[in-house]
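Forum > Structural Biology > Help requests

Title: Can anyone predict the 3D structure of GDSL-type esterase/lipase family protein?

Hi all, first post here. I have the sequence for GDSL-type esterase/lipase family protein but no way to get a structure on my laptop. I'd be grateful if someone could post the structure tokens.
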Amino acid sequence: MRRIFLLIVFSFVLTGCQENAIYETTSFSERKGLALFDYSVPDYFIPEKVTVIGLGDSLTQGVGDELKRGGYFGRVALAMNDWKGVEEIDSKNLAKRGRRSDQLIAQLESDDIQAEIKKADVIYMTIGGNDMMKIVKANLFNLTAKPFYVELGMFENRLDEIFKMVRGLNGDAIIVVAGLYNPLSIVTDEANEFETVIDDWNEAIEIQTIMDGKACFVPVVDLFVSNENMVYHSDFFHPNAKGYESMANRFIEKIDQCGLTELSDGKLDM
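Reply #1:
Sure, ran it for you. Structure tokens for GDSL-type esterase/lipase family protein below:
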């Protein structure tokens, strides 16, 4: 009987120790910060509607695309649906065949165009090709490098004005600008003075994007060397569907290299 009594008492003592152990644990508020609080949710975690616009000339308009998929612009806008941070894409192509840099400046003075730019999250642009073609047409039978460099100085000023106008309306949008290519490479695959001219014009465009800080330059000159890959439209000036597909892939590749997350202030990622 005495043994049974001692066992009962001993069990109560054990129970009391367990209860004390439970009640003596620290509260949640007194515990040290968990590692969970060191993790920050990226802005692109919550998808939003992304507004995309196209500016410039026929390359952004998609002239020559026999599949009617909007050239590189339509293809890139479609691919953006798979980016992190994108709920839906609202795209509007404001580019037009034949547009030069001075004509783009005139377009940017329109109230309707300015309203579109203010809403844009990403702006895709091609410009400069028709500025060069103007020189070609004016000097067709006596074509030298000199008039291209005279025009380049004026083009640089106009391009700077274009960026200032866009930034005056929208300081946050990502601006993605493609370089120029040499359609004369179809005629000859030999190195010529015109290639150096193209390189210098492309350098001017690239420098402008670097100076902007939230822009990305997309080189495409190597995509259209001769026509061995059948990338030209039947007019031998504009890309065909295959050419635009190559451009779209290059755009996506370079945007990634430029740092999409940084350019979008953390709102987008691939």
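Strands lie at 48-56, 86-93, 122-126, 174-178, 215-218. The radius of gyration is 30 Å.
Shout if anything looks off.
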